[in-house]
User: Fold these one by one.
Assistant:
Number 1:
Amino acid sequence: MKDLAYRTASSYQQAKQHANDNPEAFWADIAKNFEWHTPWNKVLEYDFHTPEVNWFLGGKLNITENCLDRHLKTQPDKTAIIFEPNDPNDAAQHISYSELHSRVCRAANMLKANGAKKGDRICIYMPMTPELAIAVLACARIGAIHSVVFAGFSATALAARINDAECSILLTADGGFRGAKVTPLKDIADEALTSCPSIKNCIVLKRTGQYVSWNNMDLWWHEELEKVNDNCPAEVMDSEDPLFILYTSGSTGKPKGMVHSCGGYMVYTAYSFQNVFQYQKGDVYWCTADIGWITGHSYIVYGPLAVGATTVMFEGVPSYPDYGRFWEVCAKHKVNQFYTAPTAIRALQKHPVELVNKHDLSSLKVLGSVGEPINAEAWHWYDKHVGKHNCPIVDTWWQTETGGILITSLAGVTPQKPTFATLPMPGVQAVLLDNEGNEIEGETEGILAIKHPWPSIARTIWGDHERYKNVYFSAYPGYYFPGDGALRDAEGNFRITGRVDDVVIVSGHNLGTAPIENALNAHKAVVESAVVGFPHDVKGNALHAFVIPNSEVDPNELTDELRVLVAKTIGPIAKPDRIQVVSGLPKTRSGKIMRRILRKLAAGEYDQLGDVSTLLNPEIIQEIKQNS
Ligand code: PRX
């Protein structure tokens, strides 16, 4: 495949110019490097008011032919996936493009044999094993829409996602290894499936070998595979057919099933992957995310495979068996591009630097950061100890909704600036708005917005186009509104300052406060609750829950029960760090909770509460301060 990357500052500038002058010709030039069954007859049709976005209209393709079949002609034996297991004593696996193709086709036939067809939704709740990537690609092969649910979510959260998309098949495993822990995935799935009438089959991968109970609809993955062969022609998809649904938190209790479509997503993830990381033939690339998040979809699976890269999949965690595990894996597989989250860097930074230094990191060329703002201290530690001042760092800003990286430097090609994501990618038109929605120019701070579609923008929220419109296109008509604030320096570099809505990024995970409040409120002793984020030195942000109990309860018992309840309803990642029992919440006269004040109280910024005299109950501030 042709190299999609701009390798010099001048070719980057030219691309930027071309994209500004004629966006459609720019994207068509990139898209023609892929394999299409039928070329598109129109590049783009869009209206941000309805909102409607269609890319490469009339184009027919299958993304797996671009990620797999195409490479069989030129590099069948090249390693597509290096699988590094949780336990360092277990052997790594190197899966070639031809083996991956065969395994994906076989798994696709397994799905078909169990009734799956184009347009069906298939839920994937699996640990980070090669079969997870294979499952994703197998769905894409037959045109089924995958909905991956991160294997740390609870039974209730899993069931809500299965039911929202009315999935017909669940793919899961007996259990999953993560550090010293084993997650009983099948048990959790069993609990979820007691309330998921749409599921007809549950196909179970044997990973841990632990005992699992067995139900009528359960099938073993390995037994089902034996019944089918590996000949599976790809389903021909329309460019705009949905490829997958991925849920992300919102500011109401219900998660949003973001829908991505085939053509535009393929073009943008491949284009951004090669450009941002400056991936070159023969490089080994490692993104430490989980495929349960968008980062794993776009930059472990689809982007790297579309350009024929070698991508590392890691089953474990950075702290197991010790805090040197990331660097051990980098040295072992001679990783060239390493992409992780600031929260991981901050956690590793707290441990002796000897854990980094004892590994040979000389293969590293590029470092990446994603998921939340990277603070200066973490940036410099990453640069000094991991990159040895020799590896550009790409701070990549994007979202589940954007499908791919929108604001970033290109490693070694455009300048980096610590704590700044820097510039929009060529083809991305990022602007700052004031509160009235006017574009503001120059060195300033405002609300980040995008004013022209890019190919991998999510097309809708599954089953709720109105919500898609309300959340992303109504606040500032004519723009895509991501929900982040940003400042811009004199050179046009963007620094993302954080969310401007009720979403909190905890350890790089996007958590809505509303679903957590709903979980807390479901406890019989809770009258009302409010959850806000506060700064945390490792997690970036942590959660502080203020809870009003309805009777004389033991606050310690209540807070323990509430933690368990949140873990059960959403997942352990959503457990508040602090739960404070209070007798009231600061409210306006119209009864609205003043979250701004709660955020200041949680952060201990008592001198920055602002005017509290308009509150209905100003006396509550003193009480909250006293027993915080
Ligand atoms: O607030 C921004 C933050 O993460 C949000 C998106 O979260 P999610 O959909 O889970 O996707 C995470 C992985 C792409 C954004 O709205 N965010 C992401 N990357 C950065 C960031 N904030 C600052 N700098 C970043 N590089």
Note: The first strand starts at residue 42 and ends at 47.
Number 2:
Amino acid sequence: MSRPSSPLPRLVVLASGRGSNLQALLDAIAAGTLDAKVVGVFSDKPGSAALQRVPEPLRWSARPKDFADRAAFDAALGDALDRARPDWIVCAGYMRILGPALVERFAGRMLNIHPSLLPLYPGLDTHARALAAGDAEHGASVHFVTAELDAGAVIAQVRVPVMAGDDADALAARVLGHEHPLLLGVVRLAVAGRIAEHGATVLLDGHPLFTPLQLDCDHLILNA
Ligand code: GRF
């Protein structure tokens, strides 16, 4: 008699725009290289392209201006998240600040991908800021979400060279190509139960990670 298989880990992705990181997760699931299922895509932008990447029943969106304040919007978002019963919530291009009550509600199971080598350049316009600073390299980070913007414990990073003649768009495109395997690698660890948030520290297989994992040839490695 075959054993019943355990249910697939449930992912909800929060996105405000294009959704290429979401698509990377969907493609990996379809290819059988990520053992999870996307049970919802939630957006603060009802017209976002990201929503169109999943069937209608998996979409949730609401316009912040239809709510009295951030707390009311976050409460509605939190209730919708609860209904989806996510194991992990992945912010992938979600451009709205999450208030502390919402972050607390889902603490330890919210991830965010940010296009910089955190703690450098939290917030917006990271590519232009890296160019303006004359940085030789830029990159992306995946971290646990905390109430402080882009400040949670960093799980993994990818470093990307800045090339002569780069403008912000060229640099963003180069970084984005590496964001997809970076996010996928971290989500694989998450759904396998291998990472956890412990205060400001990331635990990998129960052991503190003293520096973020690094993406090397599409694989996450410990920084020697
Ligand atoms: C990515 O650069 C991500 O790091 C940032 O927003 C962008 C989203 O891109 N937070 P996409 O919507 O996944 O294509």
Note: The two ends are 46 Å apart (CA to CA).
